[in-house]
Amino acid sequence: MAVTVFRGGRFLLPEGVRTGVALVVRDGRIEAVVPEAEAPEGEVVDAGGQWVSPGFIDMHVHGGWGHDFLDGTVEAYLVPARQHALHGTTTMTPSLATASFADYERAVRAYREALPRNSAGAQFVGIHFEGPYFAPAKAGAQDPAWLKRPVPEEYLPLLEAFPETVRVSAAPELEGAMGLGEELRRRGIVAAVAHTDASCATCEEAFTHGYSLMTHFYCAMSTVAKRGYSRYAGAVEAGYLQDFDIEVIADGVHLPIDLLRLVYRIKGADRVALCTDAIRATGLPDGEYIQGSLENGIKFVVDGGVALRPDRGGLAGSVATTDRLVRTMARAAGLEDAVRMMTATPARILGLSRKGRLAPGCDADIILFDDAVAISRVYIAGQAI
């Protein structure tokens, strides 16, 4: 059995940063963390003083490099998986924006075909349906043509047809949304609050009905509003008050550094996951693109490296990669906790017990990078890509 030994680095281990140790990998798993002098013989990877980290986990990503997962082709999965991996992503949850059932069916079919062929990119660990159960007032860049309220006659067959589903984002104030949350919890699927105009009270009620996560916190989400002379808390405040996990697009555009600092200070690294929400234009120059499938999607523009709706009145996803998120969040929380929010926290939220940590028994998803979080090497299940 082939053994690979990682040494000579600053290892981001669950208990903290360690030097002078070696990480022993055998058959795609981490076997042990030992003092360098006790490392067994094997192929040696000398980190040369770089950071040695778990691979990044992107739990909300729509595509990149000219592809959206809703295109419904194998290439639309394999190309972004490969390119995002070069930026440190070793695990991802392909996310499907609001679309028709036919678009979903085509995209899931392509996902199934891509799974066995994905040997050189970030591993897929299930599908995230971002919609279509959203509040029209908070649709953002989602296609309003497909928005609807959740009814069991529709979502139960969908969940049966797509057992790959690991997460569903929905607005809890919609009629039927509480029942959807309970059904998702029963199936072990993450229910997330998203694109919502709900009150704080409604979101706190949703927490008791299975909703445990908030999708791209602050974005397309209600906050304090004044009606008459009174002020009312919204979804953002519920995210702080209740034990929700939250994900943030830490690209420095969706949330500035001061808000990232606030999120980190209140929720802590164990409750905050970073996500890219990366779209088709990721990795491409400024210009006009399609969000969603090429056949049925809607237009958006990228201007100055920022994805915007055509009227430039709002953001339309991001063109970020996970290394950029960690660089940005490190300014608000320090590198060690920024990495935790890109590894261990999303792993826990998604129930991935063998990912997100450099610990015995975990998958050998390992990345090396310098102090500027410039990725130099990526290993997925112990294989260099």
Could you walk me through the main structural features you see in this protein, from its secondary elements to its overall organization?
This protein has 385 residues and is of the alpha/beta class. The chain folds into 2 domains: 3-53 and 360-384, Urease, subunit C, domain 1; 56-350, Alpha-Beta Barrel (TIM Barrel). The protein is 26% helix and 29% strand. Strands 8, 11, 12, 13, 14, 15, 16, 19 and 20 form a 9-stranded parallel sheet that branches. Strands 3-2-7-24-25-26 form a 6-stranded mixed sheet, with no helix packed on it. A 4-stranded mixed sheet has the order 5-4-1-6, with no helix packed on it. The model has no long low-confidence stretch (mean pLDDT 96).
Number of helices: 10
The CATH topology of the largest domain turns out to be: TIM Barrel
Estimate the helix proportion, in percent. 25-40%
Q: Span from first to last CA?
A: 20 Å
How would you characterize the largest beta sheet? 9 strands, parallel
* Bulk shape: globular
Domain unit count = 2
Report the structural category: alpha/beta
Rounded radius of gyration (Å) = 20 Å
CATH architecture of the largest domain: Alpha-Beta Barrel
CATH superfamily of the largest domain: Metal-dependent hydrolases
**Beta strands, count:** 26
Proportion of beta-strand residues: 25-35%
CATH class of the largest domain, named Alpha Beta
List segments where confidence is low: pLDDT < 50 over at least 5 consecutive residues.
none
Global mean pLDDT: 96
